[in-house]
Sequence to fold (390 residues):
Amino acid sequence: MKIKSVRARVFEWKGKTVPPQGNFCSNAMDLVYSNTESMSTFRFHSWTVVEIETDDGIIGLGNVALAPAIAKAIIDQYLTPLVLGQDPWDYEYLWQRMYRATHAWGRKGVTMAAISAIDLAIWDILGKSVGKPVFKLLGGRTKEKIPCYYSKLYRTNLDEMQAEAQKYKDQGFTAFKMRFGYGPAHLQKGVAENLKSVEAIREVIGYDNDLMLECYMGWNVEYAKRMLPKLEKFEPRWLEEPVIADDIDGYAELNRLTSIPISGGEHEFSLYGFKQLLDKKAVSVVQYDTNRVGGITAAHKINALCEAYSVPVIPHAGQMHNYHLTMSTIASPMSEYFPMFDVEVGNELFYYIFDGEPVAENGFVQLDDNKPGLGLTMKTEFLDQFNIVE
Ligand SMILES: [Mg+2]
Fold:
């Protein structure tokens, strides 16, 4: 079997959107002076879809959401020539070719996301070529079904947040992640607002359900040090990305300081990035995203690393490419779950592009033992609502 063609297309959403409020989540831009709320323009409204076709007619699907147009350019100009005419079963060789050929300017960020998209399509081909789901090629089923946590609860008014939590609690979710709206720039008033929002959600979900707290890199070490003692009484399952991804020593300091597990990794890349996080005990929960970290070839190795360090892996964003990794290792106890909503930030766009994405039932998602590859196909229902760049 040989790779015959690689096609990367950018799907730009031009349909209806529901803008969330400007401070729906604290973020790294909060520390930079601006006249507008920093999240008011933060959107993931396009996605790059990669289709790799083999000489025997199998088509593998991959995707990348980080800087889609740039990812497409990297795929078209640099990565495609490295995999054309090659045997997809040589996936490790192909991964190393892509990683090392772009090493001078790649390594992390959008280049690794572009490599991830190719790697995902290759694994989809491998599964399809032997009639097995990808998780069966990685270790198989380690769980009857995958427990997942509800992930949205953007900061809005507290009544709306409570109603949202109640609705998904009623649907059977037993774990919930909420976003803080405020960081250091919002002074003591923001501290109080953050605490009020945690209290409001705990009021709805009680203490026999899990609560995860998301900072999305919007705090700094000093602010986190002030917040953490105040948050301990709410018994969060973890505090996510308190500081920017490069501040690994900051993560390590916070993780030492508090009984609250610090989580992170959705903005970290490759086996080496995670070895560094684990060596420094910077995070107590690892949250790579398979379509950023280097694809399934890299994520599978990171799973093994986390198993050896006894640190749980709970991949960022749910989505099919992550569920296969979660299913195939006992290092991964659960998945994140982005529900399908009208298009807001863009976390939900995956559902509009692909068919086959599992829908949570009673707080669990299931993978089919008999669906070959990743189990996704292109959706036609919303095609006219995208501008597609070839
Ligand atoms: Mg996150």
The radius of gyration is 20 Å.
